[in-house]
Every structure is written in structure tokens, then in C-alpha cells.
């Protein structure tokens, strides 16, 4: 049986990097010392399956377990120079698992803000953390991350229920965080998430102050963000069309995150003042950014087409959009109003796993990356470009044109100027009114 593994041209170095990372983790799982020794590199499909089961039990989604399979197939083929045909059945089985996970919501897409009903079979400590976070209105992504870290802490300390936390103190938390840095070799961000998760649990569930934590800090160096030149941004734009081009232009022209762009609602566009409001951003914050002149007419057209779709939904009696619970209680009919609808709407309705209601949700964040990847390949770029790269370009290109870094901090929504300073590759000069880099790009193109 021939392997179906395909490695894209120009991606060999990145594939090998991840292949070696996954193989090192795999070898650690197998309890091997000297994992890079030629005598210690053989492995079987059965051993891989056991490794995948351990990752499944650690809440790794199927798509991420597929990356492990791919990495080990690449390692077998490119490092060991041996066939990987025996791993192909494992890969095919994971394809089926991924398809099952995507279709198990009775044919409807899931609404990502909703976390579903709280599982009564989960430990009571986990259930209480979920309830507290939902009462506080925290994002489901944050809930999942914090629950994952609390589960890891409970497993490490053999805790099974709330009652077991009676004798748990900040010393246990300190030791756990130190273990993550020393034995787990985790990134600083991973250790920080674990710290904040445990602090939140102590605060909202145990009703106890966590106290001072003096854990050894993870010290992996931070990555320098990838930045495209203006000409490279133009080339990538040329490979995009329709809604995906508009989303890319918004990411670059406004410095948005992909989650912020796809969650734009009709009411967030202020054409008269040329502003775009961004709500429920990272940390639950809001901010305002300039609307690029280049996008005004494009967004007006999208607004008109969105209005036509909404009229169709109203005529069918299906018009509805997901709203935060507190807002939906305060304004019971708001979910049918046009102003609250998502600008970039999905073509189908999605079922809210909490209420069971059907809504027309926004485009899923996973729909944009494949189009971007093809555009980057067509442009002949070897840089690792993601949707977040446009945000890096927004900040860096503003710095290149002399915009003050504190203005950029506000536009990006950074709470700490230190976060913005990663873009300080040049000296800053206080400039006049901030002009979107998208407008500068289009102005230069017209002038040529």
C-alpha cells in the first residue's frame, strides 16, 4: 500500500522541524534515552497508536493528532529513509475520526462561542470552574484553556473532586508550575496560562487567595514576528478574491486578528466617521480603528448583500444571530435585528449547543487559512505567513512611516507597551493623523 503523504515544494525545512519535534516527544513517551541514536529510532504503528491515545486522553483534537501522524511519517521517510506504508492505515483512520468530529452536531456547524452543556460526569471542580467562567462571560476559548490546565494540575496531584483541594496551597501550585518549566520544558506562555487558570480557580471556585508564587519561570526565547514587505502583501492580495480578499485587506488595513474580523457585526461599521468598532476582543476589551478609504465602497457592497440575505431570512422566519446571554435577555428581539447580524455570514445555519437554537453565524475561522496558503504559494513566498502576519505587517509598516508607537499600541489593543515594542525595528517619530497602510499601498499603486 503506497503512502499518500505529500510534501509541498518549499516546505521541506518546516516539515522536518516539526517531524523532529514530534519524534522527540514520541521517544520520550516510549521511555527512550538517546532518542537521536540510530539504534533508538525504530517504531511500529502499534506504538504510534498508543502515543495517539495518550494525546487523545490529554484532549488533543483529531486534527492535531493528524499532525503527529504526518510528522512521524515525514521522520520515517526523510530522516530514517525507510518506508512509511505501515503508518498509512493509521493516517486514514484519523481522517475518518476528523470527519466524524466535524459532522457529529446533527448536520449543523457548531457555534464556537458556545461551550455546550456542562457534562455532569466531569469532576465537580471542573464543573464549578466552567459555571464560574460562564457567569463572568469569559470566552469559550479561555474556558477550554483553563479547564485543560486545571485537569493537568489535578492529574499531577491525584485530585479527583473539590473536597481534595482542602489541603492544596500555593506551594502545590508553585511546585506544579516549576515542574512545567523544568521537566515539561514548556514555553513561557503555556506556563502563564496554567498560572492564570489556577489563580482563577482559587478565586472563583475555592474563594481563596492564591498568594505569592515563586515558581521557576519558563525561559524559552520569544519568536520575532514574520513581516512581509508592501510588495509581498500586494502579491498575496493578487492570489485572493471575494470575501477572502476583503478579510485579508481588513486584517492588514486595520490590524485586526482573524477572530475580530470574522466577528464584525453590521453595527460595528461607522461609514460617516470612517471607523470600525472592535468588541469582545482578547481579554474582553473593545477598541476603535480607522476604516481604510480603500475599503469603504467594498464594505458598503457587502453591507447591501448582507441586508438582502437578512431580508430573505426574515421572510422565511429564520432570521437570528447568536448574542451573549446577558444581551439576549436584555433585548429579547435583538437577535432578529439587522444591526446585530454578522457581516461575514455563514451560508448555513448553526445550532447553539447550549440552547438548541439555530442562528446564522459568521464564517468559521478555518475557512480563511487554506485560501491564504494558496495565495502565499502562488506569490512564491517562502516566509511562514498566517492570518496574524497581516497584523504584524500593519504595526511594522506604520512604524516604518513614522507613526508613534503609543498610537500603534492603541490601534492594536495592547494593554502593555512592551507587547508593542516587539515591532520597534526602527526609530519612531511622532506623526500626524494615522493613515492606514492599506491606503498608502493603494495610493502608491495609483501613482505608478
How do the strands and helices of this protein lay out in sequence?
Elements: H1 12-29, H2 45-57, H3 62-79, H4 88-103, E1 109-110, H5 124-135, H6 140-156, H7 170-182, H8 188-204, H9 230-238, H10 242-254, H11 258-262, E2 269-270, E3 275-278, E4 287-290, H12 293-316, H13 325-330, E5 345-351, E6 358-362, H14 368-378, H15 387-400, H16 405-412, H17 417-420, H18 437-447
Helix pairs in contact: 1-3, 2-3, 3-4, 5-6, 6-8, 7-8, 9-14, 10-15
Tell me what the structure shows:
With 448 residues, the protein is mainly alpha-helical. It has 18 helices and 6 strands. The protein folds into 3 domains: 12-103, no CATH class; 124-204, Orthogonal Bundle (DNA polymerase, domain 1), CATH 1.10.150; 230-384, hpI Integrase, Chain A (Orthogonal Bundle). Helix 7 packs antiparallel against helix 8, helix 9 packs across helix 14 (368-378) and helix 10 crosses helix 15 (387-400).
CATH architecture of the largest domain: Orthogonal Bundle
Uncertain segments: 104-114, 426-432
- Along the chain, the helix and strand elements come as HHHHEHHHHHHHEEEHHEEHHHHH
Dominant shape: globular
Structural class, from secondary structure content?
A: mainly alpha
CATH class of the largest domain: Mainly Alpha
Number of strands: 6
Radius of gyration: 24 Å
Q: Which labels suit this protein?
A:
18 helices; hpI Integrase, Chain A; DNA polymerase, domain 1; 3 domains; mainly alpha; three-stranded antiparallel β-sheet; 448 residues
In summary, what is this structure?
Helix content is 51%, strand content 5%. The protein has 18 helices and six strands. It has helices at 12-29, 45-57, 62-79, 88-103, 124-135, 140-156, 170-182, 188-204, 230-238, 242-254, 258-262, 293-316, 325-330, 368-378, 387-400, 405-412, 417-420, 437-447, and strands spanning 109-110, 269-270, 275-278, 287-290, 345-351, 358-362.
Amino acid at each position: 500500500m503506497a503512502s499518500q503523504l505529500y510534501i509541498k515544494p518549499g516546505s521541506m525545512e518546516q516539515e522536518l522541524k516539526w517531524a523532529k519535534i514530534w519524534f522527540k516527544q514520541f521517544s520520550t513517551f516510549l521511555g527512550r534515552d538517546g532518542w537521536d541514536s540510530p539504534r533508538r529510532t525504530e517504531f511500529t504503528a502499534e506504538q504510534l497508536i498508543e502515543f495517539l491515545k495518550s494525546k487523545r486522553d490529554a484532549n488533543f483534537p483529531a486534527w492535531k493528532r493528524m499532525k503527529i501522524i504526518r510528522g512521524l511519517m515525514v521522520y520515517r521517510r526523510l530522516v530514517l529513509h525507510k518506508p512509511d506504508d505501515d503508518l498509512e492505515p493509521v493516517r486514514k483512520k484519523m481522517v475518518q475520526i476528523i470527519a466524524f468530529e466535524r459532522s457529529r452536531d446533527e448536520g449543523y456547524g457548531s457555534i464556537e462561542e458556545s461551550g455546550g452543556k456542562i457534562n455532569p460526569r466531569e469532576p465537580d471542580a471542573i464543573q464549578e470552574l466552567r459555571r464560574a467562567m460562564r457567569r463572568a462571560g469569559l470566552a469559550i476559548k479561555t474556558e477550554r484553556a483553563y479547564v485543560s490546565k486545571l485537569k493537568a494540575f489535578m492529574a499531577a496531584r491525584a485530585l479527583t473532586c473539590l473536597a481534595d483541594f482542602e489541603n492544596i496551597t500555593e506551594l502545590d501550585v508553585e511546585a506544579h508550575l516549576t515542574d512545567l518549566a523544568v521537566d515539561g520544558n514548556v514555553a513561557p506562555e503555556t506556563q502563564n496560562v496554567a498560572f492564570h487558570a489556577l489563580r482563577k480557580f482559587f478565586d472563583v471556585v475555592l474563594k481563596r487567595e492564591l498568594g505569592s508564587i515563586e515558581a521557576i519561570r519558563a525561559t524559552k526565547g520569544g519568536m520575532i514576528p514574520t513581516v512581509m514587505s508592501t510588495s509581498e502583501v500586494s502579491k498575496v492580495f493578487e492570489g485572493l478574491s471575494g470575501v477572502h480578499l476583503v478579510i485579508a485587506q481588513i486584517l492588514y488595513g486595520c490590524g485586526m486578528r482573524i477572530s475580530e474580523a470574522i466577528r464584525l457585526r453590521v453595527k460595528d461599521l461607522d461609514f460617516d466617521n470612517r471607523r470600525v468598532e472592535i468588541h469582545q476582543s482578547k481579554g474582553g476589551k473593545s477598541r476603535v480603528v480607522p476604516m481604510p478609504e480603500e475599503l469603504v465602497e467594498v464594505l458598503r457592497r457587502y453591507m447591501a448583500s448582507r441586508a438582502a440575505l437578512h431580508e430573505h431570512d426574515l421572510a422565511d422566519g429564520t432570521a437570528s444571530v447568536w448574542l451573549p446571554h446577558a444581551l439576549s435577555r436584555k433585548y429579547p428581539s435583538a437577535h432578529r435585528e439587522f444591526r446585530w447580524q454578522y457581516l461575514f455570514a455563514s451560508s448555513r445555519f448553526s445550532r447553539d449547543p447550549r440552547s438548541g437554537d439555530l442562528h446564522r453565524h459568521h464564517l468559521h475561522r478555518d475557512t480563511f487559512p487554506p485560501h491564504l496558503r494558496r495565495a502565499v504559494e502562488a506569490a512564491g513566498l517562502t516566509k511562514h505567513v498566517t492570518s496574524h502576519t497581516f497584523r504584524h505587517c500593519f504595526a511594522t509598516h506604520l512604524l516604518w512611516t513614522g507613526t508613534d508607537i503609543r498610537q500603534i499600541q492603541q490601534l492594536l489593543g495592547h494593554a502593555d507597551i512592551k507587547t508593542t515594542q516587539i515591532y520597534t525595528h526602527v526609530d519612531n517619530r511622532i506623526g500626524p493623523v494615522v493613515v492606514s497602510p492599506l491606503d498608502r499601498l493603494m495610493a502608491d499603486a495609483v501613482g505608478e
